[in-house]
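During the no-cost extension, the postdoctoral fellow (Dr. R.K.) reprocessed legacy sequence entries with the updated structure-token encoder. One reprocessed record is reproduced below for audit purposes.
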Amino acid sequence: MKKLLPAFLLLITFACRKDSSTSVPSTVSNQKCLLLSSTSPDGYTTAIAKYELDSIVTEIKTTNGNEALKWYLQIENPKQFIFMDGDKSLKNAKTRIYLNDFGSIEKEIVVTLNADGVTLTEDPDQVRLFTYNSKKQLIKVESSIGDQGVYKLTYDSKNRLNRISIQDTFDDEIFVYENFTYLDKPKNDNSFVVAFFESMAMYLIPSIRNVYITGYQINSPLFPALSTEAKYDYTFDKEGNLSTVRNRINTYGVAVDTVTPVTLSCK
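Re-encoded structure tokens follow.
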């Protein structure tokens, strides 16, 4: 994400709970808790999420000092959304997002507002297409939007995300997310700590948030010095629900250590 990259922003994501929601249910994950907010101990950095249809996040606001990021989704129907960056007006519409039959993202298309100020036109040349395997795990994203290229994802024998390869249009591998480690604990919330493109569509991929990831590295085969190591520690309350996340990021030999309490709503 280019505007802000507080680690806890990645904790606020879509959830598909097995309840009376009219949204498309996900059969990929079993998440009963929704992350509502997170605040750094000094109050400098905050994130707040709001949901509609009981489980679809339609608003994410984060602040980092005086800098703010505001993302919104307008629900056209339970399987179709408009992503807006900045405020809720259609003049800030960026893309239209479509879900597939099992509640994960199918495609994302860049849109522009028409002269009538009400309707949107899709650009067929600026699209992200999402491919899944038989386990409903995302395995490939083909993008002709700003971050053009191909994203390839693999999973281990326990169905945990264990590698992301980002290739450019010339098939050169630009970045690799690898060396994943995990917490051996069942996961019942909608947090996640891996993002690889900038859009609310990122939060519609259940298969990347089915376990607590405790660490990974981001490496660049073309530029070995561009290496980042991320580590996460989790604290849980007496009911076993997530209460605090400690995030340690090391880039260029500079380490940043952040402890973030979170607020959840659980069923």
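The mean pLDDT is 86. The CA atoms of residues 29 and 210 lie 6 Å apart. The remaining legacy entries will be reprocessed before the final report is submitted.
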